Amino acid sequence: MQWKTADYAGWGRAVRARGTLARPERLPALAAALAARGPAIGNRRSYGDAALNAGGAAIQMTRLDRLLSFDAETGVIEAEAGVTIAELLRLFAPRGWMPPVMPGTGFATLGGCIACDVHGKNHHGAGSFGQHVLAVTLMTDTGPRAVTPGTDPGLFRATMGGLGQTGAILSARLQLRPIPGQRMRVVETRIPDFDAFIAALDASTAEFAVGWVDATARRKRLGRGILEEGELLDGSRPGPVRRAKSVPLDAPGLLLSWPVIRLFNRWRLSRIPDSGRKRIRALDDFFFPLDALQDWNRLYGKRGFHQFQCVVPQDAAPALREILAAIAKSGIASPLAVLKRMGPGRAGHLSFPMAGYTLAVDLPARKTRAAPLYARLEDMVQAAGGRLYLAKDALARPGTIAAMYPELDAWRAEIARADPEGHMTTDLMRRLKLRSAA
């Protein structure tokens, strides 16, 4: 194993770091790398600085990706932290199983899904990823340590959604869910405005539901978009293998100019007839639609982008409407805007979900406009009793984040016990002062 000095970034590419990286393949190499005192990171699919350690060391876990065990009767697997969710889906869907919670990209690692306690299009029913983790093995100075909700509930809860601060996640045992087939029946419905969108999400009985929102629309058309509702299809076989295309270079800024985005959004809406559209889709096509375009983050150019993702309580839907109006008025939103309904399920102190509605919008990183807009949106979310998603954040302030996460002090106590010298600290931890009082 070798250390390499490199410039690296999160998926948004707007925040970068320079430091030394190692990619161990075996347990002894991992132990040696951790002696360098740096955090363990995954595939860097978090958008901001959650996986960055500028000026220091970091251990990339992606080569530790082996399947350790599988019980075909119960659907319980044990795998190393570097395996991706897409690989788990590829391996187990033909056997009638899949991960119970699927993030928006299959390139997320098992360890990353735990560290961010990710959610999916079925959060309103299935809860968060960490709620399906049965045990996690942390690599400590004295060797691997298995942690379960029964053996050490405080440490287990601090690890779920804990952004890797309890130690390097070596492996985990995960309860898969049975599936009747390998395709989805998807119904797409055009929604005229925000209020209709909230009503449609509340009325939906589908297991999986997600909305695309036209973030450029204003006034009477504010919040218009497309609702996708999906159900697993019985007895279906996998579709043709999807061949991903790539973005070979950083796109010019004109590609995401406001007029171009508005035209694109109108075209996307026009593809759905008034009566709606029904389709049969492969699992990966439904759960990971953007993975069909590798390195799609390059479409935002060299400056990259920030993603704003918030969740507000159910009774604060009018506040979310005002948040969307502020984004539309700003003139810097991208075509990627997602609206979902969430349930109460969360596994850790710093887990993002709450019962309500979540909105995620990409904001091209324009220095004079993105940061002021983000700060305004941040204040609106706090006033509504909501919170920001730390896996997406790169611009929030320590005080507001502390107010959004009432279990922060309990998490800090567990982190002080698990990593008293701060070896796992990342740039996000320092920026938001999460490990100590602001």
From TrEMBL:
Molecular function via GO: FAD binding; oxidoreductase activity, acting on the CH-OH group of donors, oxygen as acceptor
Domain named FAD-binding PCMH-type: residues: 14-179
InterPro entries: FAD-bd_PCMH, FAD-bd_PCMH-like_sf, FAD-bd_PCMH_sub2, FAD_lactone_oxidase-like, Oxid_FAD_bind_N
Record's keyword annotation contains Mitochondrion: no
Keyword vocabulary terms for this entry: FAD, Flavoprotein
Superkingdom assignment: Bacteria
Keyword Flavoprotein in record: yes
Database matches in PANTHER family: D-ARABINONO-1,4-LACTONE OXIDASE, L-GULONOLACTONE OXIDASE
Protein name as catalogued: Decaprenylphospho-beta-D-ribofuranose 2-oxidase
Origin organism lineage: Bacteria, Pseudomonadati, Pseudomonadota, Alphaproteobacteria, Rhodobacterales
